[in-house]
Amino acid sequence: MDIVIWLALVAGIPIAYLVALGHQIFTGKKRSALLSLLIAAVVAATAAWATGQGRGEWAGLGYFLVPVQAALAGLLALGFSQSQNARAPARPILAWIALAFSLLIIVYNVARGMRRASYNRAVVTYGQDEFGHFNREKRLIEAGLELNPGRREIWLDSVIRARLQDSVFLTVALRYDSISPGLLDTLALSPFHDVARGVIGHNRTRPQTLAKIYRAHSGSDNFVVPLAQYRHTPPDILREIYHRPDTPRAIDVSLASNPNTPRDVLVAIARSAQNPETIEALITNEVVDCALLSEVASYMAGKGKSIARDYNVARLNEVWPKVCSGREAPTTSALR
User: Fold this and answer.
1) CB of 227 within 8 A of CB of 200?
2) 76/155 same-domain check
3) How many domains does the chain have?
4) Which spans in the chain are helix H?
């Protein structure tokens, strides 16, 4: 119902304005029509400009309201022209109030556009500063590694230890493999969460370091999710993540696709998956075998189309001959 009312306003106000404007023109009140058109045009221009300053995902929807604003201001201007010379004492006052409101719409749009433009400039400046800092640190590290070909790990470790309070530098440094596992263990407990998260995906991070990160941040999905996705996270940690009572079941997709996830967890997910994406992750997991794939097929057959989407049925039929050689694949109708 709300959307119907909204659409009625979006369409109804401009239509009402066009009807009123046409009436003014046909009755010979051209000055009134011209004033109204002028104000409506200015409102439309300022509203479109202010909307164009938006950078959000839904900013473009503001253009749907441009005709509404223009029509509303135009109607107020017509009301002003109609009532400014009326004999009733209150009507001229209301006429000037109507004109003031139509002009306030212009002021509002200009202020809104200027505020958004100022915000955009601040975002650009911030981005340039941040990326400039990032690129400077990247060039410094690459130059240092090039000058120390035989002792890259020693050099990078020493620089990192000297700058443990520089989050940007540490974030950049974690992109390079020349960091010792021992130092990664230290960075795992960094007060900067972006740095600690960066340790999770590093090629030289040891399993015990990943366990340390989990123990320190087990209550944060910002850490639990990447740990569930990372193929070198210890199986015991992955099992604990799955069995935590507060673990969102959406994380099952990450666990289902991780080849290091314990077998018992994969079987449990195969018997309780809540969405087609989890089923797809299980089918395409590189450690899937015939027994696990059979569990998936049985679950799909029991759940029907809510889980057994066409692409999952096709993927299962594609994988089945590779892992269940000699066994008859379940029929498509049985899976649905």
Assistant:
1) yes
2) no
3) 3
4) 2-26, 30-52, 66-83, 90-147, 152-162, 167-173, 181-187, 193-200, 207-217, 221-229, 235-243, 252-257, 263-270, 276-284, 290-303, 310-323, 332-335
Query: What CA–CA distance (Å, rounded) separates 190 from 258?
Result: 26
106-133 burial, b if ≥16 CB within 10 A, otherwise e? beebeebbeebeeeeeeeeeeeeeeeee
Dihedral angle sign, alpha carbons of residues 55, 60, 61, 62: positive
260 is a domain residue:
yes
**What single DSSP character describes residue 240?**
H
What lies within 8 Å, CB to CB, of 267 at 6+ separation is: 292, 295
Block mean pLDDT (10 aa), the chain, length 336: 67 84 81 86 90 73 82 84 62 77 89 86 69 83 91 94 92 94 95 94 94 91 92 94 82 93 94 89 92 89 72 86 80 55
> Are residues 154 and 117 located together in one domain of the fold?
no
Closest by CA to 300, choosing from 324, 328, 326, 280, is: 280
Q: Are residues 126 and 17 in the same domain?
A: yes
Look up the pTM and report it: 0.60
The answer to whether 267 touches 273, Cβ cutoff 8 Å, is no
Quote the CA–CA distance of 78 and 37 in Å, as a whole number: 9
CA–CA distance, 68 with 80 (Å, rounded to integer): 18
Residue 2 lies in a domain: no
Residues 257 and 235 in one domain: no
How many angstroms separate the CA atoms of 269 and 251, rounded?
11
Q: Are residues 333 and 271 in the same domain?
A: yes
pLDDT tens digits along 117-134: 888 877 777 666 667 778
